[in-house]
């Protein structure tokens, strides 16, 4: 079933954005996403050289990388080598094409709170839909912690250049991948610089049935809007993240993540809602299954769950009964409160265990930093536009998404059937969260 046509609001915004500098509109492209891990990880088809891979769609990092043959998989806790299959990437690995060119003066090394990947830097032809960057820097990873989902072969980074993860070739310590960066232009920035797209992209993630491990995942559109009916947009500026040392962002205080100030939160049950108007910064991260928020927000929300979430030190998250009833919850962004759908406040794992979608940022900091992050639960109720030309983000509620606590099949429909199969993975997580599904299964027996 195809989606409804865009609303008048969508069409008028598209015209406004494309014509804002008086230049002719460049072409855009839309690709369908695959949802895996019960709707917590979202992959897009990306062609590198002459091969097409599924890559995790990640607004929380900037590099595009793909797995090389003979990957060395290492345990995230002790750096011991483990079987390659434990990294859970697809069996499809990168083979150099005629357009491949190695960069001997640089190496690739990226690190998240729960994992890392490293290898070579290279130039290669990269395409998304019908848009191609002929000479794009990418990472070719030959070392990784377990961060796959059984379908993807790497990651598509959509954040700013300041946190790209190329380093001088003599950079050997994986403990300092946060620093010593050789900044380059990420894929969507290159596509704009080459006059292939207007300087923005948009995402609409699908809400998937709770018991389906794989399904249609929504849309990624470069230089345009996805074919999803929505209401009016709210616009907010992209800010420099406060409190982050300059050495995290290539020695400059600059835009790095898709960051803005959240004006407050509203939560509760019908007829008994509470609003906390204390502002705080956060960045939007489509690659994170969880939202990592201030404890002053997370704790009162959890207190309203019908079954109180229980913190588990081993996994660094809250386990909760899958049938738990949840309160209403909304984030104030700009002049509007965006409510989550209740079904998105609980994150199901393939171990048959459910977790709260919220974790306090004070408990999962990285390198001493406690950063607030808006994860995939938020994305499932909005069309999100990321504008790196005007350094703005725009959000519009998806029509028919609802905000109640009832379970819903979702507000987006697939243009074609997709198969469902069981996989095990945690995806790409920021923060100290390290989801061991084996550990979860043991805990629940």
UniProtKB/TrEMBL annotation:
CDD domains: pepsin_like. InterPro entries: Aspartic_peptidase_A1, Aspartic_peptidase_AS, Pepsin-like_dom, PEPTIDASE_A1, Peptidase_aspartic_dom_sf. It comes from Penicillium capsulatum. It catalyses: Hydrolysis of proteins with broad specificity similar to that of pepsin A, preferring hydrophobic residues at P1 and P1', but also cleaving 20-Gly-|-Glu-21 in the B chain of insulin. Clots milk, and activates trypsinogen. The keyword Protease applies. This is penicillopepsin. GO terms for biological process: proteolysis. PROSITE patterns: ASP_PROTEASE, PEPTIDASE_A1. Pfam families: Asp. Monomer. Its EC number is 3.4.23.20. The lineage of its organism: Eukaryota, Fungi, Dikarya, Ascomycota, Pezizomycotina. It comes from the Eukaryota. Residues 1-19 form the signal peptide. The keyword Signal applies. The active site is at residues 58, 285. Residues 42-396 form the Peptidase A1 domain. It is an enzyme of class 3 (hydrolase). GO terms for molecular function: aspartic-type endopeptidase activity.
């Amino acid at each position: 079933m195809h989606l409804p046509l865009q609303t008048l609001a969508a069409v008028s915004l598209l015209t406004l954005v494309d014509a804002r500098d008086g230049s002719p509109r460049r072409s855009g492209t839309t690709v369908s996403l695959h949802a895996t891990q019960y709707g917590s990880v979202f992959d897009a088809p990306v062609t590198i050289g002459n091969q097409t891979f599924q890559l995790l769609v990640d607004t929380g990092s900037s590099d595009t990388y793909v797995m090389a043959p003979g990957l060395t998989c290492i345990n995230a806790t002790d750096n011991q080598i483990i079987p390659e299959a434990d990294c859970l990437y697809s069996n499809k690995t990168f083979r150099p094409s005629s357009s491949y060119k190695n960069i001997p003066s640089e190496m690739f090394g990226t690190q998240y709170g729960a994992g890392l990947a490293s290898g070579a830097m290279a130039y290669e032809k990269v395409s998304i839909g019908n848009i191609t960057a002929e000479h794009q820097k990418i990472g070719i990873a030959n070392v990784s912690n377990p961060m796959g989902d059984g379908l993807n072969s790497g990651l598509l980074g959509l954040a700013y250049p300041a946190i790209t993860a190329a380093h001088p070739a003599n950079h050997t310590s994986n403990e300092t991948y946060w620093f010593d960066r050789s900044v380059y232009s990420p894929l969507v920035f290159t596509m704009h610089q080459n006059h292939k797209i207007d300087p923005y992209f948009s995402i609409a993630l699908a809400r998937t049935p709770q018991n389906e491990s794989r399904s249609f995942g929504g849309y990624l559109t470069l230089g345009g809007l996805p074919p999803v009916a929505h209401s009016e947009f709210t616009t907010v500026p992209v800010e420099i993240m406060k409190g982050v040392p300059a050495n995290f962002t290539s020695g400059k205080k600059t835009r790095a993540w898709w960051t803005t100030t959240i004006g407050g939160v509203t939560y509760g049950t019908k007829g008994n809602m509470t609003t906390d108007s204390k502002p705080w910064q956060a960045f939007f991260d489509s690659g994170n299954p969880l939202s990592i928020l201030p404890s002053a927000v997370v704790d009162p929300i959890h207190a309203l769950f019908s079954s109180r979430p229980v913190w588990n030190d081993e996994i660094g998250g809250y386990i909760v009964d899958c049938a738990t009833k949840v309160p209403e919850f909304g984030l104030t962004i700009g002049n509007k409160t965006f409510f989550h759908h209740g079904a998105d406040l609980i994150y199901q794992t393939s171990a048959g265990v459910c977790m709260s979608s919220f974790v306090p940022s004070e408990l999962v900091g990285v390198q001493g930093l406690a950063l607030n992050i808006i994860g995939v639960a938020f994305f499932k109720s909005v069309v999100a536009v990321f504008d790196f030309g005007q350094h703005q983000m725009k959000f519009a509620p998806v029509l028919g998404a609802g905000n109640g606590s009832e379970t819903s099949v979702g507000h987006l429909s697939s243009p074609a059937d997709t198969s469902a199969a069981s996989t095990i993975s945690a995806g790409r997580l920021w923060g100290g969260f390290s989801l061991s599904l084996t550990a979860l299964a043991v805990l629940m027996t």
